[in-house]
């Protein structure tokens, strides 16, 4: 990326709409309600031949105290300082507001490169506000319509000089190979996974509101990049950030707190939750963050079960551990509740952390790498079938209705998560309890604790690799016998039976 562009302005002037148009995807939440965006969101933008990084910011408020609006403003001002170019957007239909005058003065002091954009300028309704924008003293405004894509050529013309200025900052991406994408016939069980900036480790942090997700990520990043505070539900967008954690390149998502579906009534909160669910699907490791005061609430269990059903590696982290007095007793209770309430994640890592002090982050880092390694594990076919033989000897499958179920052959068909197929007779008659018996055995005997495991029963007749060869051999034998009979009959010899 050649330069960084920060989009700033009052709430509800169309910053997130323009951000989505520049990145080519609906990454940022958009709604008619002002103040939807609260955190900084970065994306890779394309505009004609230009490639650059764009930052969507919270609407500039006049508050300067420690209130939520004040903290949002400080975060936006930080984005202005770190960006190479600022696009100051105003609403052409509303005209220049007193707050626009204040923020224009701030930008003149903080940023040397400012582009003025008059958004919502399509049609006659925006003409007056467009000409009024000249009074801000930031040069000729760009006439835009972020919703309809008008004015993009003019914006490209304004950005091209900056692209040339920052061209020398272009950096080629690393090309390290991520061996986690293993071919299907790979038989090595102990492959070391490598990470690179091109393919970093993907992590999503999920949990209920006010569990401390944003605070935890800020501590991992080593900077206050995400908006935090005592209020519940501050985060609305699923914000992703690329960084390096103890030598491991990673991309981490901060998600909105997920409440019970019955309590989610507002459209905006529904959008926030669906945005967080998408982050879970894009991630490789999901960190389910619990509050030590109210762990394993019903919603926590639903969130952990969601991550397991999506097939993601799961790490359970218990936050605010620094506030707990009886640590040993509490830890014992947590482990017992984890085993009892989440049997589908038996053996998954559970660590205690303090997002405020940073204590326990080393354990969390190790648990994430361990869970990711198990998630990528591959077991050789020979070892799987030796294990299957022992499991059948210890506990044979039932015979419903007197029909015996034969489990003949087992192989691993994919990783991420580990998925296995067993060729058997009557796959539709295998009870779910026997499937759980085999899955628990895989976790315990083949060192795959906590990771989601997929086990499929297939009829052996569906895919028999020798079936066609056998039929071809029989047909050839029949033709040979028939020919011999005809030849002997022609010589008057009685054929042998």
Characterize the structure shown.
The chain is an alpha/beta fold and 497 residues long. It has 3 domains: 166 residues, P-loop containing nucleotide triphosphate hydrolases (Rossmann fold, 3-Layer(aba) Sandwich), CATH 3.40.50; 175 residues, P-loop containing nucleotide triphosphate hydrolases (Rossmann fold, 3-Layer(aba) Sandwich); 79 residues, GMP Synthetase, Chain A, domain 3. Helix content is 35%, strand content 19%. The chain contains 13 helices and 15 strands. The strands form 3 sheets. The protein has a 6-stranded mixed beta sheet with strand order 2-3-1-4-5-6. A 6-stranded mixed beta sheet has the order 8-9-7-10-11-12, with helices on both faces. Helix 4 links the parallel strand 5 and strand 6. The longest helix is centred in the C-terminal third of the chain and has 24 residues. The relative contact order is 0.08. This is GTPase Der. GTPase that plays an essential role in the late steps of ribosome biogenesis.
What's this model, at a glance?
The chain is of the alpha/beta class and 497 residues long. Helix content is 35%, strand content 19%. It folds into three domains: 4-169, P-loop containing nucleotide triphosphate hydrolases (Rossmann fold, 3-Layer(aba) Sandwich); 201-375, 3-Layer(aba) Sandwich (Rossmann fold), CATH 3.40.50.300; 381-459, K homology (KH) domain (GMP Synthetase, Chain A, domain 3).
